[in-house]
Design a protein that fits this description.
about 40% helix, globular, Rossmann fold, alpha/beta
């Protein structure tokens, strides 16, 4: 199974905090509108069949469903999916959640999705290339695939690990394993090897003074990648 049991346990233990915007997941709540609008601008979500790989508690999944997409969220944390399901019932925003690996889902529903998203997940799995291949298999020809992850360099270590986890305490200690961070060149290579075309890279920055996140062209720490599967 392409999952790290310790990573699953870590996110499962925090599952009940997913929808608390003041909790450990505060950064996810704050970056979600930026990610959502970037995705929607490149692949308008209304009426689209969308799958969110590594959906966790469903923050992005549910926001895409609010845009009019038919959304499936998949994850391997049973607790996070229960939280996601419960929130979907409470909010009245329908999302189909499944406890299934991306690779299994790709075998079951190949080429069924207009849009595939995989956010903040690749840096938590043993074989990120296999997840990228699964995403490429799930998307229809002409469809869009979006990833976001963390770059691997001294600045990313300083900002994402030392800064976010230890100094600013924005994230629980041990959230990230620097060794698993992925450079844009590596992620682009995974995508091309999987038959995807890389269309755009975007950086995401955080200003600790204003406490505001923004999209920019600096991919040195957090970054997003937009791909398409050629027709």
């Amino acid at each position: 199974m392409n999952a790290d049991p310790l990573e699953l346990q870590k996110f499962s233990e925090l599952a009940h905090h997913w929808w608390d915007p003041t909790s450990e997941f505060k950064p996810l709540h704050e970056i979600n509108p930026l990610r959502l609008e970037w995705i929607n601008a490149r692949a308008p979500l209304a009426g689209k069949n969308v799958i969110d790989i590594g959906c966790g508690g469903g923050i992005l999944s549910e926001s895409m469903a609010r845009k009019g997409a038919k959304v499936t969220g998949i994850d391997l944390s049973e607790k996070a999916l229960k939280v996601a399901d419960l929130h979907s019932l409470e909010s009245g925003v329908p999302v189909r959640y499944k406890l299934i690996a991306a690779e299994e889902m790709a075998a079951a529903e190949a080429g069924q999705f207009d849009v595939v998203t995989c956010m903040e997940m690749l840096e938590h799995v043993p074989d990120p290339g296999a997840i990228v291949r699964a995403a490429a298999t799930l998307v229809k020809p002409g469809g869009h695939v979006f990833f976001s992850t963390l770059n691997r360099n001294a600045k990313a270590y300083l900002f994402a690990v030392i800064g976010a986890e230890y100094l600013l305490r924005m994230l629980p200690k041990g959230t990230h394993d620097y060794e698993k961070f992925i450079t844009p060149a590596e992620l682009s290579q995974y995508a091309r090897t999987a038959g995807l075309q890389v269309d755009a890279l975007k950086g995401m920055g955080y200003n600790p003074l204003t406490k505001v996140y923004s999209l920019n062209n600096d991919t040195s720490v957090n970054y997003l990648v937009a791909c398409t599967r050629p027709e």
